[in-house]
Amino acid sequence: MFSLENITDSSQKWLYATFNSTIALVLQCVIVMLLVISLFAVLGLVLVLMERKVAARMQIRLGPNRVGPKGMLQTAADTLKLMMKEGLTPDGADKFLFNLAPFVVMIAGMLIMAPIAFAKGFQIWDINIGVLYVSAVSSVSVIGILMAGWASNNKYSLLGAMRSGAQIVSYELSAGFSIVSIVVLAGSLQMSDIIASQQTGWWLFRGHIPAIIAFVIFIIAVTAETNRAPFDLAEAESELTAGFHTEYSGMKFALFFLAEYINIFIVCAIGATLFLGGWMPLHVGHWKGFNHVMDYIPSSLWFLGKTFFLIFLIMWFRWTFPRLRVDQLLSLEWKYLLPISMFNLLLITLIAIMGWHF
Amino acid sequence: MYRETKILNVDSKVSPIGGDLEGAVGADEGELVINVGPQHPATHGVLHLVITLQGETIQKVEPHLGYIHRSIEKMCESLSYRQFIYVTSRMDYLSAHINNHGCALCVEKGLQLEIPPRAQVIRVLMDELTRIASHELWWGAMAMDLGAFTPFFYAFRERETINDIMEETCGARLTMNYMVPGGVMYDIHPNFQKRVKDFIQLFNNKIDEYDDLVTNNIIFQNRTKGVGILSAADAISYGCTGPVARGSGVTCDIRKLYPYEVYDKVAFDEIIETAGDSYARYLVRIKELRQSVRIIEQLIDNIPDGDFQAKTKAVLKLPRGEFYSRIETARGEFGVYIVSEGGTTPYRIKFRSPGFSNLSALDHMSRGSKIGDLMAIMGTLDLVIPDIDR
Amino acid sequence: MTNGEIKQHIVTVRPNGVFDETGEWLQVQVDISEWKTFAQWLRNDALQMDFLFCLTGIDWSATATGKTLLTMVYHFTSTVFRHTLVVKVKLDRNNPEIETVSDIWRTAEFHEREVFDLFGVKFLHHPDLRRLVLTDDFEGYPLRKDFEDPINMIKL
């Protein structure tokens, strides 16, 4: 059976057998780095194309269909165009911060890749505080956005950045509470433990209604955290033209754009890991035959399938809903989502202590 | 046309919160002055608004007009009574046909022409189709201003059908130029009745779809309810007409008050909402779509036979005097005021455009609301910039 | 109210008003000095003319009789009685000045700016009298009959 685990294991064995342990570690780091960067590039291309195709589907049109078969190479062509473009820096901008900001956003995205388990045994770093690490590092990207808005010397950018700051900081709370509720159920912060705890069933199904509430809140909160519609106030183009990245052009703009899609992928991957069992196949009770068939589907496909389903969900929101107003956005979080998720956490704790979950 | 704006100090080396920009011309402590437009996604054209903000709250909105001013009134002074009608298509291009209609009515008033019944019915049918097309575009653009992209494509799907119908009969899709003093330029296409009937049958269900997608959406309702409130007294004082005034509870439908053509013979309701907020203005337009369909349904099978054009002289000369005609466009009351000295061209012509007066209420309506609300308010004002600048 | 009734009402306050009943609506010409008080009376008293739907100027300098004449034309409707009245005020074309009515009808603020812009009529006590559609440094008043622009104006 095809498995990524075999590849990683055999490559590690070979490296440590051929070189001494220090060089082997360095080589491993280099390989991982290259893999992450190429994953970034591929994800960017795929997700942008997917967004355009999904949008086209919902808007009764065809979407990109000229470059390559069925428009598959459209995003590659777009990337090429963006690379050719001049990266303008406005005169009044703080040049250092202005140029640094896209990289901060990008690096924050790259760092969160570390604890994500892409398949069985295919994980960069199974850190024992995995979930905590994810929620901590994901807040770094807001610094990049604030930096970009501030350094651009543009009022639209500044307004967008300030909105974004308020939004991400607030919605991190509910997202955190939803994550913590799964941590309570699984009893561990480590990604591999959380996945292993879902062997008999995903937390979304095992945790009764509170887990479903946590899942819904998680999806809402991460949509807001990634600045996606209907919470895209930071870039709200009908109000602030393009918000915090109004002044960016060329590849610097592309980095912001890429970071947005990478962030979507990451939050969806985390959602899939926490609520939908990561790479765990779908098992239903005592249906032996069914479970056996499910096991034959490679774990990497399970993971990607779940993640892309969540990504599709988030894209669906974007092309359906109008945007919220800034005060409504904050009152939604502080008046509704936060109290609900706090109470929900209590319920989940009760369920976990009493062992009421399946 | 170059316009120097002293308000946005783009050369400033100071960071946005620093002293320079914040203390820009006319701004008090802590106020931020930003330019919305002339190139801005939400102004749908070249409207330039200078808005003063306190945080996200709007203190003042000051429209700067003229980016698409062509002085159409002056132009018309050198055009004959047959020619000037078609220049008005370039004002409110979304209800170009109704503009032309208003001008034709004014010339006919001066000539005291009797319009054949067939021409009258065709004119009203075309007017209502134009109104539907215009409201469709408004609906899509309004939803887009509020951040929902998909409705725009749904709206254009139906609008396309209307454009095709127009194209078949008039030869043009947007600026139809179908009016002549005394009737319409040519007879309707043989397919016209069938295609219009197909369209309205399809369209009735589509309005329900619009309600599902936007009207009943909780986010949309939250964004528009209680936003940009305009009282009835203010609406009258600001000279607002059309759906804007009717959303505030003012009876102002010219089709009902001063019926022209066959509007006094068809049954339809004037939509009045009393809340005066953006949602009320939205509802007025959505309900008007149904009323327009109702008018078309009554007339489409009853187009009388006969001439489509009254006999007129080749060169029209209006008698000395002043003529004023009022007509209800998709945006409100459109007035044409012709002062004639008896020649072949108007001595003075004035177009009273609905958008101009509606825009003047923008500042009053948006004070104290958020930037996001400004888009909701502008969306429901349904501004067409060439109509305002002329 | 019919035109006759409106006329009777006006005659009681302005016995020297000049009436013209040939058109669709009753026209009355008032003296420039009486304009502001007359406007207030129109809005607030018996006639209730609350809706000023058209405000414009006419430059008569191209006609034989009106070399120095510029008229302001105000179209009023009452949303209470549904009657319409046209008021005209004659101005001196060389120095056109008239009291603003933007404090009575808010819509006049924009319309008066437009007339100022295109005809050069000065509205006294207007809150914000600036050019509206043309640039601030534009010379001349385009809707006046003697305006010439050799580049942008096409004459047929």
Automatic annotation (TrEMBL), chain A:
The keyword Mitochondrion does not apply. Its main location: membrane. GO terms for molecular function: NADH dehydrogenase activity; oxidoreductase activity, acting on NAD(P)H, quinone or similar compound as acceptor; quinone binding. It comes from the Bacteria. It comes from Niastella yeongjuensis. GO terms for cellular component: plasma membrane. GO terms for biological process: aerobic respiration. Keywords: Cell membrane, Membrane, NAD, Quinone, Translocase, Transmembrane, Transmembrane helix, Ubiquinone. The chain crosses the membrane at residues 23-49, 96-118, 130-150, 171-191, 203-224, 253-276, 296-316, 336-356. InterPro entries: NADH_UbQ_OxRdtase_su1/FPO, NADH_UbQ_OxRdtase_su1_CS. NDH-1 is composed of 14 different subunits. Subunits NuoA, H, J, K, L, M, N constitute the membrane sector of the complex. PROSITE patterns: COMPLEX1_ND1_2. Its EC number is 7.1.1.-. This is NADH-quinone oxidoreductase subunit H. PANTHER family: NADH DEHYDROGENASE SUBUNIT 1, NADH-UBIQUINONE OXIDOREDUCTASE CHAIN 1. It catalyses: a quinone + NADH + 5 H(+)(in) = a quinol + NAD(+) + 4 H(+)(out).
From TrEMBL, chain C:
Belongs to the complex I 30 kDa subunit family. It is an enzyme of class 7 (translocase). Signal peptide: none annotated. It holds the Pfam family Complex1_30kDa. Transmembrane segments: none annotated. InterPro entries: NADH_quin_OxRdtase_su_C/D-like, NADH_UbQ_OxRdtase_30kDa_su, NADH_UbQ_OxRdtase_CS. The lineage of its organism: Bacteria, Pseudomonadati, Bacteroidota, Chitinophagia, Chitinophagales. Its EC number is 7.1.1.-. NDH-1 shuttles electrons from NADH, via FMN and iron-sulfur (Fe-S) centers, to quinones in the respiratory chain. The keyword Hydrolase does not apply. PANTHER family: NADH DEHYDROGENASE [UBIQUINONE] IRON-SULFUR PROTEIN 3, MITOCHONDRIAL, NADH DEHYDROGENASE UBIQUINONE IRON-SULFUR PROTEIN 3. The keyword Translocase applies. GO terms for molecular function: NADH dehydrogenase (ubiquinone) activity; oxidoreductase activity, acting on NAD(P)H; quinone binding. Keywords: NAD, Quinone, Translocase, Transport. Residues 28-148 form the NADH:ubiquinone oxidoreductase 30kDa subunit domain. SUPFAM superfamilies: Nqo5-like. PROSITE patterns: COMPLEX1_30K (PS00542). It catalyses: a quinone + NADH + 5 H(+)(in) = a quinol + NAD(+) + 4 H(+)(out). This is NADH-quinone oxidoreductase.
